[in-house]
Design goal:
heterodimer; A: 380 residues; mainly beta; Methylamine Dehydrogenase, Chain H; 2 domains; 5-stranded mixed β-sheet; 4-stranded antiparallel β-sheet; 3 helices; globular; B: 182 residues; Rna Polymerase Sigma Factor, Chain: A; Arc Repressor Mutant, subunit A; elongated
Chain lengths: 380, 182
Protein backbone atom coordinates (compact mmCIF):
# COMPACT_ATOMS: atom_id res chain seq x y z
CA UNK A 1 0.00 0.00 0.00
CA UNK A 2 2.94 2.32 0.61
CA UNK A 3 0.69 4.45 2.81
CA UNK A 4 -1.30 5.53 -0.23
CA UNK A 5 -5.10 5.53 -0.21
CA UNK A 6 -6.77 2.38 -1.46
CA UNK A 7 -8.86 2.31 -4.61
CA UNK A 8 -11.94 2.03 -2.39
CA UNK A 9 -11.07 5.28 -0.66
CA UNK A 10 -10.14 7.00 -3.91
CA UNK A 11 -13.52 6.04 -5.33
CA UNK A 12 -15.37 7.22 -2.22
CA UNK A 13 -13.58 10.57 -2.29
CA UNK A 14 -14.10 10.94 -6.01
CA UNK A 15 -17.82 10.24 -5.72
CA UNK A 16 -18.08 12.68 -2.85
CA UNK A 17 -16.36 15.42 -4.83
CA UNK A 18 -18.55 14.72 -7.86
CA UNK A 19 -21.80 14.73 -5.91
CA UNK A 20 -22.09 18.38 -5.08
CA UNK A 21 -24.88 19.16 -7.51
CA UNK A 22 -28.40 19.91 -6.34
CA UNK A 23 -31.43 18.69 -8.15
CA UNK A 24 -32.75 21.43 -10.43
CA UNK A 25 -36.04 23.01 -9.39
CA UNK A 26 -37.60 22.12 -12.73
CA UNK A 27 -37.26 18.45 -11.80
CA UNK A 28 -39.48 18.93 -8.75
CA UNK A 29 -41.88 21.09 -10.74
CA UNK A 30 -42.27 18.35 -13.32
CA UNK A 31 -42.72 15.64 -10.70
CA UNK A 32 -45.33 17.60 -8.79
CA UNK A 33 -47.16 18.47 -12.00
CA UNK A 34 -47.17 14.83 -13.07
CA UNK A 35 -48.35 13.48 -9.73
CA UNK A 36 -50.82 16.12 -8.65
CA UNK A 37 -54.22 14.60 -9.13
CA UNK A 38 -52.77 11.48 -10.68
CA UNK A 39 -54.35 8.26 -9.44
CA UNK A 40 -52.41 5.96 -7.17
CA UNK A 41 -52.33 2.19 -7.33
CA UNK A 42 -54.83 0.36 -5.19
CA UNK A 43 -53.51 -0.70 -1.87
CA UNK A 44 -52.93 -4.44 -1.51
CA UNK A 45 -55.32 -5.88 1.06
CA UNK A 46 -55.15 -9.54 1.85
CA UNK A 47 -57.85 -12.04 2.68
CA UNK A 48 -59.69 -11.78 5.95
CA UNK A 49 -61.48 -14.31 8.08
CA UNK A 50 -65.04 -13.60 9.07
CA UNK A 51 -66.24 -14.38 12.62
CA UNK A 52 -67.67 -17.70 11.52
CA UNK A 53 -64.27 -18.86 10.45
CA UNK A 54 -65.20 -18.97 6.80
CA UNK A 55 -63.08 -17.21 4.28
CA UNK A 56 -64.91 -14.44 2.50
CA UNK A 57 -63.92 -12.69 -0.68
CA UNK A 58 -61.52 -9.78 -0.76
CA UNK A 59 -64.10 -7.24 -1.87
CA UNK A 60 -66.57 -8.20 0.84
CA UNK A 61 -63.84 -8.31 3.43
CA UNK A 62 -62.66 -4.86 2.44
CA UNK A 63 -66.16 -3.47 2.65
CA UNK A 64 -66.57 -4.98 6.09
CA UNK A 65 -63.26 -3.54 7.18
CA UNK A 66 -64.10 -0.07 5.88
CA UNK A 67 -67.52 -0.13 7.55
CA UNK A 68 -66.00 -1.30 10.83
CA UNK A 69 -63.33 1.37 10.75
CA UNK A 70 -65.84 4.07 9.85
CA UNK A 71 -68.06 3.16 12.80
CA UNK A 72 -65.08 2.97 15.15
CA UNK A 73 -63.68 6.32 14.02
CA UNK A 74 -67.06 8.02 14.25
CA UNK A 75 -67.68 6.73 17.75
CA UNK A 76 -64.16 7.69 18.77
CA UNK A 77 -64.58 11.19 17.41
CA UNK A 78 -67.93 11.61 19.18
CA UNK A 79 -66.43 10.46 22.45
CA UNK A 80 -63.53 12.83 22.09
CA UNK A 81 -65.88 15.64 21.15
CA UNK A 82 -63.73 16.66 18.26
CA UNK A 83 -65.63 16.18 15.05
CA UNK A 84 -64.17 19.45 13.77
CA UNK A 85 -61.81 18.66 10.92
CA UNK A 86 -58.20 19.36 11.84
CA UNK A 87 -56.46 22.40 10.47
CA UNK A 88 -54.56 21.30 7.44
CA UNK A 89 -51.11 22.65 6.97
CA UNK A 90 -50.31 24.29 3.66
CA UNK A 91 -48.66 22.41 0.85
CA UNK A 92 -45.26 20.84 1.41
CA UNK A 93 -45.55 20.93 5.19
CA UNK A 94 -45.42 18.07 7.63
CA UNK A 95 -46.41 18.69 11.19
CA UNK A 96 -44.86 16.93 14.15
CA UNK A 97 -47.19 17.93 16.97
CA UNK A 98 -45.01 17.08 19.92
CA UNK A 99 -41.54 17.13 21.34
CA UNK A 100 -39.95 13.97 20.09
CA UNK A 101 -37.37 13.65 22.85
CA UNK A 102 -35.99 15.68 25.68
CA UNK A 103 -32.78 15.40 27.62
CA UNK A 104 -32.48 16.18 31.32
CA UNK A 105 -31.18 19.69 30.88
CA UNK A 106 -31.39 21.69 34.04
CA UNK A 107 -33.09 25.03 34.11
CA UNK A 108 -30.61 27.26 32.30
CA UNK A 109 -31.47 30.42 34.25
CA UNK A 110 -34.49 32.58 34.98
CA UNK A 111 -34.27 34.56 31.76
CA UNK A 112 -32.42 32.80 28.97
CA UNK A 113 -31.76 35.04 26.02
CA UNK A 114 -29.83 32.95 23.55
CA UNK A 115 -28.24 29.67 22.63
CA UNK A 116 -24.97 28.68 21.01
CA UNK A 117 -24.06 25.06 20.35
CA UNK A 118 -20.49 24.11 19.49
CA UNK A 119 -19.78 20.40 19.49
CA UNK A 120 -20.67 19.05 22.91
CA UNK A 121 -20.83 22.48 24.49
CA UNK A 122 -24.20 24.18 24.81
CA UNK A 123 -23.86 27.84 25.80
CA UNK A 124 -26.99 29.50 27.15
CA UNK A 125 -26.91 33.26 27.54
CA UNK A 126 -28.71 34.75 30.50
CA UNK A 127 -28.91 38.42 31.44
CA UNK A 128 -25.43 38.79 32.94
CA UNK A 129 -24.13 35.27 32.80
CA UNK A 130 -23.42 32.64 30.21
CA UNK A 131 -23.71 29.02 31.30
CA UNK A 132 -22.18 26.04 29.59
CA UNK A 133 -23.99 22.69 29.53
CA UNK A 134 -22.76 19.31 28.42
CA UNK A 135 -24.84 18.38 25.39
CA UNK A 136 -24.93 14.72 26.36
CA UNK A 137 -25.65 14.86 30.07
CA UNK A 138 -27.40 18.21 30.21
CA UNK A 139 -25.33 19.14 33.27
CA UNK A 140 -23.84 22.60 33.78
CA UNK A 141 -20.07 22.39 33.47
CA UNK A 142 -19.07 26.04 33.42
CA UNK A 143 -20.28 29.60 33.79
CA UNK A 144 -18.90 33.06 33.20
CA UNK A 145 -20.24 36.46 34.16
CA UNK A 146 -20.61 37.97 30.73
CA UNK A 147 -23.28 39.09 28.35
CA UNK A 148 -21.97 37.69 25.08
CA UNK A 149 -20.20 34.53 24.01
CA UNK A 150 -18.39 33.41 20.89
CA UNK A 151 -17.09 29.88 20.56
CA UNK A 152 -15.67 27.49 18.03
CA UNK A 153 -13.95 24.11 18.37
CA UNK A 154 -10.69 25.89 19.26
CA UNK A 155 -12.03 27.84 22.21
CA UNK A 156 -14.42 30.43 23.57
CA UNK A 157 -14.33 34.16 24.28
CA UNK A 158 -16.78 36.12 26.35
CA UNK A 159 -17.57 39.84 26.40
CA UNK A 160 -18.46 41.99 29.38
CA UNK A 161 -19.10 45.71 29.60
CA UNK A 162 -15.41 46.24 30.37
CA UNK A 163 -13.70 43.98 27.89
CA UNK A 164 -13.34 40.61 26.26
CA UNK A 165 -12.01 37.46 27.88
CA UNK A 166 -10.59 34.18 26.61
CA UNK A 167 -12.10 31.30 28.58
CA UNK A 168 -10.49 28.27 30.16
CA UNK A 169 -11.77 25.28 28.14
CA UNK A 170 -12.13 23.19 31.30
CA UNK A 171 -13.96 25.59 33.60
CA UNK A 172 -15.17 28.37 31.27
CA UNK A 173 -13.55 30.86 33.67
CA UNK A 174 -11.73 33.90 32.21
CA UNK A 175 -8.00 33.45 31.60
CA UNK A 176 -7.35 37.10 30.76
CA UNK A 177 -9.21 40.36 30.19
CA UNK A 178 -8.57 42.66 27.26
CA UNK A 179 -9.97 46.19 27.64
CA UNK A 180 -12.27 46.47 24.65
CA UNK A 181 -15.32 48.10 26.28
CA UNK A 182 -18.88 48.31 25.11
CA UNK A 183 -19.02 45.10 23.10
CA UNK A 184 -22.34 44.51 21.39
CA UNK A 185 -21.15 41.54 19.40
CA UNK A 186 -18.22 39.17 19.28
CA UNK A 187 -17.04 36.70 16.67
CA UNK A 188 -14.11 34.39 16.03
CA UNK A 189 -12.09 33.17 13.12
CA UNK A 190 -9.08 30.89 13.24
CA UNK A 191 -6.63 33.57 14.35
CA UNK A 192 -8.62 36.60 15.48
CA UNK A 193 -11.34 37.82 17.80
CA UNK A 194 -13.62 40.44 16.25
CA UNK A 195 -15.47 42.75 18.63
CA UNK A 196 -18.22 45.13 17.57
CA UNK A 197 -18.19 48.13 19.92
CA UNK A 198 -21.43 50.08 20.14
CA UNK A 199 -20.41 53.45 21.55
CA UNK A 200 -17.08 53.48 19.73
CA UNK A 201 -18.84 52.74 16.42
CA UNK A 202 -16.08 50.40 15.43
CA UNK A 203 -14.92 46.83 15.11
CA UNK A 204 -11.75 45.85 16.94
CA UNK A 205 -9.59 42.93 15.89
CA UNK A 206 -7.54 41.00 18.47
CA UNK A 207 -5.08 38.16 18.13
CA UNK A 208 -6.38 34.95 19.68
CA UNK A 209 -2.80 34.02 20.50
CA UNK A 210 -1.24 37.21 21.89
CA UNK A 211 -4.50 38.92 22.93
CA UNK A 212 -3.13 42.14 21.43
CA UNK A 213 -5.25 44.57 19.41
CA UNK A 214 -4.27 44.32 15.75
CA UNK A 215 -6.68 46.73 14.10
CA UNK A 216 -9.66 48.99 14.66
CA UNK A 217 -12.09 49.55 11.81
CA UNK A 218 -14.34 52.60 12.00
CA UNK A 219 -18.00 52.19 11.06
CA UNK A 220 -20.56 54.63 9.74
CA UNK A 221 -22.84 54.01 12.72
CA UNK A 222 -23.43 52.04 15.86
CA UNK A 223 -23.06 48.32 15.19
CA UNK A 224 -25.71 45.87 16.32
CA UNK A 225 -24.36 42.38 15.73
CA UNK A 226 -21.38 40.68 14.15
CA UNK A 227 -20.74 37.38 12.36
CA UNK A 228 -17.48 35.96 11.10
CA UNK A 229 -17.08 33.40 8.36
CA UNK A 230 -16.55 32.63 4.69
CA UNK A 231 -13.47 34.86 4.64
CA UNK A 232 -15.26 37.99 5.82
CA UNK A 233 -16.61 39.80 8.86
CA UNK A 234 -20.21 40.97 8.65
CA UNK A 235 -21.62 43.70 10.90
CA UNK A 236 -25.14 45.04 11.15
CA UNK A 237 -25.74 48.81 11.33
CA UNK A 238 -29.42 49.03 12.34
CA UNK A 239 -29.62 52.82 12.35
CA UNK A 240 -28.18 53.01 8.86
CA UNK A 241 -30.38 50.17 7.60
CA UNK A 242 -27.44 48.25 6.26
CA UNK A 243 -24.86 45.58 6.91
CA UNK A 244 -21.19 45.95 6.05
CA UNK A 245 -18.70 43.34 4.92
CA UNK A 246 -15.19 43.78 6.28
CA UNK A 247 -12.30 42.29 4.34
CA UNK A 248 -9.93 40.76 6.94
CA UNK A 249 -6.99 40.88 4.55
CA UNK A 250 -7.00 44.69 4.57
CA UNK A 251 -8.99 45.38 7.76
CA UNK A 252 -11.39 47.66 5.92
CA UNK A 253 -15.03 47.81 4.94
CA UNK A 254 -15.32 46.24 1.51
CA UNK A 255 -19.06 46.45 0.90
CA UNK A 256 -22.27 47.95 2.25
CA UNK A 257 -25.58 46.20 1.70
CA UNK A 258 -28.87 47.95 2.49
CA UNK A 259 -31.13 45.81 4.69
CA UNK A 260 -34.03 47.26 6.61
CA UNK A 261 -33.70 46.96 10.42
CA UNK A 262 -31.07 44.21 10.59
CA UNK A 263 -30.98 42.47 13.98
CA UNK A 264 -29.53 38.94 13.99
CA UNK A 265 -26.74 37.81 11.68
CA UNK A 266 -24.91 34.56 11.05
CA UNK A 267 -22.78 33.12 8.27
CA UNK A 268 -23.40 29.72 6.70
CA UNK A 269 -23.10 27.95 3.37
CA UNK A 270 -21.26 30.83 1.74
CA UNK A 271 -23.74 33.51 2.67
CA UNK A 272 -24.56 35.94 5.44
CA UNK A 273 -28.06 35.38 6.88
CA UNK A 274 -29.72 38.42 8.39
CA UNK A 275 -32.95 38.50 10.38
CA UNK A 276 -34.71 41.82 10.79
CA UNK A 277 -35.88 43.38 14.06
CA UNK A 278 -39.48 42.34 13.61
CA UNK A 279 -38.42 38.80 12.69
CA UNK A 280 -40.40 38.97 9.51
CA UNK A 281 -37.72 38.76 6.83
CA UNK A 282 -34.62 36.67 6.40
CA UNK A 283 -32.16 38.24 3.99
CA UNK A 284 -29.38 36.21 2.44
CA UNK A 285 -26.30 38.05 1.21
CA UNK A 286 -23.67 36.33 -0.90
CA UNK A 287 -20.09 37.56 -0.94
CA UNK A 288 -20.77 38.63 -4.51
CA UNK A 289 -23.33 41.07 -3.19
CA UNK A 290 -26.30 39.07 -4.44
CA UNK A 291 -29.23 39.54 -2.07
CA UNK A 292 -32.26 37.30 -1.59
CA UNK A 293 -35.12 37.95 0.83
CA UNK A 294 -37.45 35.36 2.29
CA UNK A 295 -40.26 35.51 4.82
CA UNK A 296 -38.94 34.37 8.19
CA UNK A 297 -40.78 31.54 9.93
CA UNK A 298 -43.34 31.35 7.13
CA UNK A 299 -46.72 29.98 8.19
CA UNK A 300 -45.90 30.23 11.90
CA UNK A 301 -49.09 30.10 13.90
CA UNK A 302 -51.05 28.61 11.06
CA UNK A 303 -50.82 25.03 12.12
CA UNK A 304 -51.67 25.25 15.75
CA UNK A 305 -54.00 28.13 16.60
CA UNK A 306 -54.72 26.59 20.00
CA UNK A 307 -51.12 27.07 21.00
CA UNK A 308 -50.53 30.80 20.97
CA UNK A 309 -47.17 32.16 20.07
CA UNK A 310 -46.39 33.61 23.47
CA UNK A 311 -42.98 34.99 22.65
CA UNK A 312 -41.34 37.01 19.98
CA UNK A 313 -39.78 35.17 17.09
CA UNK A 314 -36.26 34.27 17.95
CA UNK A 315 -33.22 32.78 16.35
CA UNK A 316 -32.38 30.43 13.60
CA UNK A 317 -29.61 28.06 12.65
CA UNK A 318 -28.46 26.80 9.28
CA UNK A 319 -27.54 23.12 9.28
CA UNK A 320 -26.49 21.68 5.94
CA UNK A 321 -29.53 21.73 3.70
CA UNK A 322 -31.94 22.96 6.36
CA UNK A 323 -32.68 26.22 8.11
CA UNK A 324 -34.33 25.80 11.51
CA UNK A 325 -36.29 28.85 12.54
CA UNK A 326 -37.92 29.37 15.92
CA UNK A 327 -41.07 31.41 16.35
CA UNK A 328 -43.51 31.35 19.20
CA UNK A 329 -43.86 27.71 20.14
CA UNK A 330 -42.82 26.29 16.81
CA UNK A 331 -39.59 25.20 15.19
CA UNK A 332 -39.87 25.45 11.44
CA UNK A 333 -37.58 23.62 9.06
CA UNK A 334 -37.14 25.24 5.70
CA UNK A 335 -35.08 24.19 2.74
CA UNK A 336 -31.81 26.07 2.76
CA UNK A 337 -31.75 26.49 -0.99
CA UNK A 338 -35.35 27.40 -1.69
CA UNK A 339 -36.81 28.62 1.59
CA UNK A 340 -39.73 26.22 1.20
CA UNK A 341 -41.18 24.94 4.45
CA UNK A 342 -40.38 21.29 5.01
CA UNK A 343 -41.61 20.61 8.53
CA UNK A 344 -43.07 22.30 11.55
CA UNK A 345 -42.31 21.02 15.02
CA UNK A 346 -44.85 22.24 17.54
CA UNK A 347 -43.36 22.42 21.02
CA UNK A 348 -46.51 23.19 22.92
CA UNK A 349 -47.41 22.82 26.57
CA UNK A 350 -50.28 24.15 28.71
CA UNK A 351 -48.42 27.30 29.73
CA UNK A 352 -47.19 28.20 26.31
CA UNK A 353 -43.67 28.26 25.03
CA UNK A 354 -41.48 31.04 23.72
CA UNK A 355 -38.53 29.64 21.91
CA UNK A 356 -35.63 32.00 21.66
CA UNK A 357 -32.78 30.03 20.18
CA UNK A 358 -31.93 26.90 18.29
CA UNK A 359 -28.74 24.94 17.71
CA UNK A 360 -27.61 21.54 16.50
CA UNK A 361 -25.49 18.89 18.14
CA UNK A 362 -25.08 15.49 16.58
CA UNK A 363 -28.44 14.45 15.24
CA UNK A 364 -30.32 16.47 17.81
CA UNK A 365 -31.76 19.90 17.68
CA UNK A 366 -31.64 22.00 20.84
CA UNK A 367 -34.03 24.83 21.54
CA UNK A 368 -34.27 27.20 24.47
CA UNK A 369 -37.70 27.73 25.93
CA UNK A 370 -37.77 31.14 27.60
CA UNK A 371 -41.03 30.51 29.46
CA UNK A 372 -40.03 27.17 31.02
CA UNK A 373 -37.27 28.09 31.26
CA UNK A 374 -35.67 24.96 29.89
CA UNK A 375 -33.53 23.53 27.14
CA UNK A 376 -35.23 20.94 24.96
CA UNK A 377 -33.43 18.41 22.85
CA UNK A 378 -35.40 17.27 19.83
CA UNK A 379 -34.80 14.36 17.54
CA UNK A 380 -36.17 15.74 14.33
CA UNK B 1 -37.50 9.24 7.21
CA UNK B 2 -40.77 10.39 8.65
CA UNK B 3 -43.08 7.39 8.86
CA UNK B 4 -46.08 9.65 9.34
CA UNK B 5 -45.37 11.41 6.07
CA UNK B 6 -45.04 8.14 4.21
CA UNK B 7 -48.34 6.89 5.59
CA UNK B 8 -50.07 10.14 4.68
CA UNK B 9 -48.66 9.95 1.17
CA UNK B 10 -49.78 6.35 0.90
CA UNK B 11 -53.27 7.54 1.66
CA UNK B 12 -53.12 9.97 -1.26
CA UNK B 13 -51.92 13.09 0.59
CA UNK B 14 -49.99 14.89 -2.13
CA UNK B 15 -48.63 17.48 0.30
CA UNK B 16 -46.99 14.72 2.29
CA UNK B 17 -45.54 13.25 -0.87
CA UNK B 18 -44.25 16.69 -1.80
CA UNK B 19 -42.50 17.00 1.54
CA UNK B 20 -40.95 13.56 1.10
CA UNK B 21 -39.72 14.40 -2.36
CA UNK B 22 -38.26 17.73 -1.29
CA UNK B 23 -36.40 15.99 1.51
CA UNK B 24 -34.98 13.25 -0.68
CA UNK B 25 -34.77 14.75 -4.14
CA UNK B 26 -31.24 16.11 -3.97
CA UNK B 27 -29.78 12.88 -2.64
CA UNK B 28 -31.56 10.76 -5.24
CA UNK B 29 -30.51 13.12 -8.00
CA UNK B 30 -26.86 12.90 -6.92
CA UNK B 31 -26.99 9.11 -6.97
CA UNK B 32 -28.53 9.10 -10.44
CA UNK B 33 -26.02 11.61 -11.73
CA UNK B 34 -23.12 9.60 -10.37
CA UNK B 35 -24.40 6.45 -12.02
CA UNK B 36 -25.40 7.98 -15.35
CA UNK B 37 -22.69 10.68 -15.57
CA UNK B 38 -25.14 13.03 -17.21
CA UNK B 39 -27.32 15.72 -15.63
CA UNK B 40 -30.16 15.48 -18.14
CA UNK B 41 -30.32 11.71 -17.95
CA UNK B 42 -30.22 11.84 -14.16
CA UNK B 43 -33.07 14.30 -14.16
CA UNK B 44 -35.14 12.04 -16.39
CA UNK B 45 -34.38 9.00 -14.28
CA UNK B 46 -35.28 10.66 -10.99
CA UNK B 47 -38.44 12.12 -12.46
CA UNK B 48 -39.53 8.72 -13.74
CA UNK B 49 -38.74 7.13 -10.39
CA UNK B 50 -40.63 9.71 -8.36
CA UNK B 51 -43.70 9.65 -10.56
CA UNK B 52 -43.72 5.88 -10.38
CA UNK B 53 -43.20 6.06 -6.62
CA UNK B 54 -46.32 8.19 -6.24
CA UNK B 55 -48.37 5.68 -8.16
CA UNK B 56 -46.97 2.64 -6.38
CA UNK B 57 -46.73 4.10 -2.89
CA UNK B 58 -49.99 2.54 -1.60
CA UNK B 59 -48.46 -0.85 -2.26
CA UNK B 60 -45.46 -0.24 -0.05
CA UNK B 61 -46.12 -2.58 2.86
CA UNK B 62 -43.66 -1.21 5.42
CA UNK B 63 -43.43 2.61 5.52
CA UNK B 64 -40.14 2.34 7.40
CA UNK B 65 -38.64 0.80 4.27
CA UNK B 66 -39.48 3.86 2.19
CA UNK B 67 -35.85 4.98 1.81
CA UNK B 68 -34.67 1.64 0.47
CA UNK B 69 -37.78 1.32 -1.69
CA UNK B 70 -37.37 4.70 -3.39
CA UNK B 71 -33.64 4.10 -3.82
CA UNK B 72 -34.41 0.91 -5.69
CA UNK B 73 -36.84 2.77 -7.92
CA UNK B 74 -34.17 5.31 -8.80
CA UNK B 75 -31.60 2.62 -9.56
CA UNK B 76 -34.09 0.84 -11.80
CA UNK B 77 -34.91 4.11 -13.52
CA UNK B 78 -31.19 4.63 -14.10
CA UNK B 79 -31.02 1.21 -15.78
CA UNK B 80 -33.97 2.11 -18.01
CA UNK B 81 -32.52 5.49 -18.90
CA UNK B 82 -29.12 4.01 -19.69
CA UNK B 83 -30.79 1.38 -21.85
CA UNK B 84 -32.54 4.07 -23.86
CA UNK B 85 -29.26 5.82 -24.40
CA UNK B 86 -27.33 2.80 -25.61
CA UNK B 87 -27.72 3.63 -29.24
CA UNK B 88 -26.35 7.07 -28.74
CA UNK B 89 -22.60 7.08 -29.11
CA UNK B 90 -20.93 9.11 -26.43
CA UNK B 91 -17.57 10.61 -27.08
CA UNK B 92 -15.82 11.51 -23.89
CA UNK B 93 -12.76 13.52 -24.70
CA UNK B 94 -9.87 13.07 -22.32
CA UNK B 95 -6.81 15.29 -22.52
CA UNK B 96 -3.69 13.55 -23.76
CA UNK B 97 -1.75 11.71 -21.07
CA UNK B 98 1.55 13.00 -19.84
CA UNK B 99 0.88 16.71 -19.96
CA UNK B 100 3.32 18.20 -17.54
CA UNK B 101 1.17 21.14 -16.51
CA UNK B 102 -1.69 19.07 -15.09
CA UNK B 103 -1.65 18.04 -11.45
CA UNK B 104 -1.52 14.42 -10.46
CA UNK B 105 -4.93 14.67 -8.85
CA UNK B 106 -6.48 16.01 -12.02
CA UNK B 107 -4.98 13.19 -14.03
CA UNK B 108 -6.30 10.65 -11.55
CA UNK B 109 -9.78 12.16 -11.73
CA UNK B 110 -9.77 12.04 -15.49
CA UNK B 111 -8.73 8.43 -15.44
CA UNK B 112 -11.38 7.56 -12.91
CA UNK B 113 -13.96 9.24 -15.11
CA UNK B 114 -12.79 7.39 -18.20
CA UNK B 115 -12.62 4.02 -16.50
CA UNK B 116 -15.98 4.48 -14.77
CA UNK B 117 -17.76 5.44 -17.96
CA UNK B 118 -16.57 2.26 -19.59
CA UNK B 119 -18.30 0.13 -16.93
CA UNK B 120 -21.78 -1.31 -17.56
CA UNK B 121 -24.45 0.68 -15.78
CA UNK B 122 -25.25 -2.13 -13.33
CA UNK B 123 -21.63 -2.18 -12.17
CA UNK B 124 -21.57 1.61 -11.89
CA UNK B 125 -24.68 1.47 -9.73
CA UNK B 126 -23.09 -1.03 -7.37
CA UNK B 127 -19.96 1.09 -7.00
CA UNK B 128 -22.00 4.22 -6.27
CA UNK B 129 -24.31 2.49 -3.81
CA UNK B 130 -21.41 0.90 -1.96
CA UNK B 131 -18.78 3.63 -2.04
CA UNK B 132 -20.87 6.81 -2.13
CA UNK B 133 -23.94 5.97 -0.08
CA UNK B 134 -22.02 3.47 2.02
CA UNK B 135 -24.53 0.63 1.71
CA UNK B 136 -23.60 -2.87 2.79
CA UNK B 137 -23.59 -5.62 0.18
CA UNK B 138 -26.97 -6.77 1.43
CA UNK B 139 -28.40 -3.28 1.02
CA UNK B 140 -26.73 -2.87 -2.36
CA UNK B 141 -28.36 -6.09 -3.48
CA UNK B 142 -31.74 -4.85 -2.31
CA UNK B 143 -31.32 -1.49 -4.05
CA UNK B 144 -30.14 -3.11 -7.27
CA UNK B 145 -32.87 -5.75 -7.11
CA UNK B 146 -30.44 -8.66 -7.37
CA UNK B 147 -29.28 -11.48 -5.07
CA UNK B 148 -26.42 -10.70 -2.72
CA UNK B 149 -24.08 -12.98 -4.65
CA UNK B 150 -24.78 -11.04 -7.84
CA UNK B 151 -24.16 -7.73 -6.08
CA UNK B 152 -20.92 -9.09 -4.72
CA UNK B 153 -19.71 -10.27 -8.11
CA UNK B 154 -20.70 -6.98 -9.74
CA UNK B 155 -18.75 -5.10 -7.11
CA UNK B 156 -15.80 -7.41 -7.62
CA UNK B 157 -15.77 -7.04 -11.39
CA UNK B 158 -16.36 -3.30 -11.24
CA UNK B 159 -13.48 -2.80 -8.82
CA UNK B 160 -11.23 -5.07 -10.85
CA UNK B 161 -12.09 -3.22 -14.05
CA UNK B 162 -11.42 0.15 -12.47
CA UNK B 163 -8.10 -1.00 -11.10
CA UNK B 164 -7.09 -2.63 -14.37
CA UNK B 165 -8.01 0.45 -16.37
CA UNK B 166 -6.08 2.72 -14.05
CA UNK B 167 -3.07 0.41 -13.98
CA UNK B 168 -3.05 0.16 -17.77
CA UNK B 169 -3.06 3.91 -18.14
CA UNK B 170 -0.39 4.07 -15.47
CA UNK B 171 1.89 1.97 -17.55
CA UNK B 172 1.18 4.16 -20.52
CA UNK B 173 1.96 7.27 -18.51
CA UNK B 174 4.86 6.58 -16.13
CA UNK B 175 4.80 10.16 -14.88
CA UNK B 176 1.86 9.48 -12.57
CA UNK B 177 2.22 8.15 -9.05
CA UNK B 178 1.28 4.52 -9.68
CA UNK B 179 1.16 3.45 -6.08
CA UNK B 180 -2.07 5.34 -5.45
CA UNK B 181 -4.50 2.50 -6.01
CA UNK B 182 -3.87 -0.60 -3.99
Amino acid sequence: MNGQPSLDRILAEWFESEAITRAPDRLFDRVFAATSGAPQARRRVGWLLDPTGLVVGRRIANLMLVALLTVALTVGALVAGSLRPPDRPPANVAVVPRVVATTPFGSPCAHPTGLLVVGDAVWVSCLDQVRRFDATTGQVNGAVNASLIAADPSGAWAATAAGVEPLDPATARPLDSVPVPGAVGIGLDATSVWVAQGDARSVTRLSRTTHLIEATIALAGRPGAIAVGEGAVWVTLPDQGQIVRIDPSVNAVAARIPILNPAVITVANGRAWVLDVGATTLTLVASTGLVESRPFAPLAGHVSPSEPATGAAGGFVVTGTSVWEVAGSQVIETDEATGAVVRILVIGNPTGVALIGVGETGSRLLVVDAVGPRVLALSP
Amino acid sequence: MNRDLVELAQGGDHDAFTALVLGLGDRLFRVAKLILRDVDQAEDAVQDALVRAWRELPRLRDPDRFDAWIRRMVVNACYDTARKQRRRVEVHVLPPAGESDRSNDLIVRERLEGAFRRLPVDQRAVLVLHHYIGLSLLEVAEAAGVPVGTAKSRLHYATRSMRAALDAEDRADPGVDRSRWA
